[in-house]
Specification:
alpha+beta; Uridine Diphospho-n-acetylenolpyruvylglucosamine Reductase, domain 2; Uridine Diphospho-n-acetylenolpyruvylglucosamine Reductase, domain 3; five-stranded antiparallel β-sheet; four-stranded antiparallel β-sheet; 8 helices
């Protein structure tokens, strides 16, 4: 379904943001749109859509062991990945294949295969829309959490990110804790290298996620839920094969995909929308799904998982 907005502004240089604040653009309804891969528009947007389009990757510091790079918000995440691969920079390789733009990465604290982008972020810079002043937050002030940050909470709709600075290693180091990745390397009898690890991650991703040129999707539609240890122990008695991961503050992270599959939704569809048959975290559009059909699948999945496990799963996708 095509959706419209009242005005679309493509920002070609960070200095333009201050001008837009002065013009009062952000005093009426607005939405900052990066690559759009994690957005579900359910209707026309009665406001202004602002799209940061500025590019650039700059080396700020370089030593024998590390490189610090400053990346413009409008750069595609895949462009940054290729930059790191070409220069043998380590730290972000487990996040290869994730769609979207660099400026969106810290907002969501994107993560995959045991790595989160916060692990390599040095600072996040941008413009305060409420005070018309620049900001520069070190990692700690971003308050990163699981698919979370200060930009989704206290500073929601108050900031436009212009640059993200990453501290990356020149020394070989890999995070191979994710079982499917370690298994793929072992099955291929490959020793870890930047190319081998990224090739394996892309293979694992492609085996679970649909080809978006053929089947529409927004990647993982749901976040993995966090529950207290006591609740996990009770669930484990009823579901001994429950997949779990340790989480901060005594919480336990469950695999939402497993919960959805156990609730009977893997491969099911309502009209032209459904849960992907190879990865239950993914809701797909088989061709002509309406927003109502996609939301109906989302709501039904949440309801059935809650009924079976007494666990609430929340969408990772931003629904407008």
């Amino acid at each position: 379904m095509d959706v419209l907005c009242s005005r679309f502004i493509e920002v070609e240089h960070p200095d333009e943001v201050s001008e837009l604040v002065t013009e009062g653009v952000f005093q009426s309804p607005f939405f900052i749109l990066g690559g759009g891969s994690n957005i579900l528009f359910t209707k026309d947007f009665a406001g202004v859509v602002v799209h940061p389009a500025f590019k650039g990757i700059e080396i700020l510091e370089e030593s024998q062991n590390e490189t610090v790079i400053k990346v413009a918000a409008g750069e595609e995440w895949e462009t940054l990945q290729q930059y790191c691969l070409e220069r043998q920079l380590y730290g972000l390789e487990n996040l290869i294949g994730i769609p979207g733009n660099v400026g969106s990465a810290p907002v969501q604290n994107i993560g995959a295969y045991g790595t989160e982008v916060k692990d390599c972020i040095e600072t996040v810079e941008g413009w305060r829309l409420d005070t018309n002043a620049p900001f520069r937050f070190p990692n700690a002030e971003c308050r990163f959490g699981y698919r979370d940050s200060v930009f989704k909470n206290e500073l929601k709709n108050k900031c436009l990110i212009t640059h993200v600075t990453f501290r990356l290693s020149k020394i070989e180091r890999y995070n191979l804790k994710y079982k499917a990745l370690a298994d793929e390397l072992q099955n291929r009898q490959w020793s870890p290298s930047l190319k081998n690890v990224t090739d394996c991650i892309l293979h694992v991703r492609n085996s679970k996620l649909p080809d978006i040129t053929r089947i529409g999707c927004a990647g993982s539609f749901f976040k993995n839920p966090l529950i207290p240890q006591q609740q996990y122990e009770q669930l484990k008695q009823e579901f001994p094969d429950l997949v779990s991961y340790p989480a901060p503050d005594g919480m336990v992270k469950l695999a939402a995909g497993q919960l959805i599959e156990k609730a009977g939704w893997k491969g099911r569809r309502l009209g032209d929308a459904g849960v992907y048959d190879k990865q239950a975290l993914v809701i797909v559009n088989y061709g002509g799904a309406t927003p109502e059909e996609i939301l109906s699948v989302c709501d039904a999945v949440i309801r059935d998982v809650e009924a079976m496990f007494h666990v609430h799963i929340a969408p990772e996708v931003n629904i407008l």
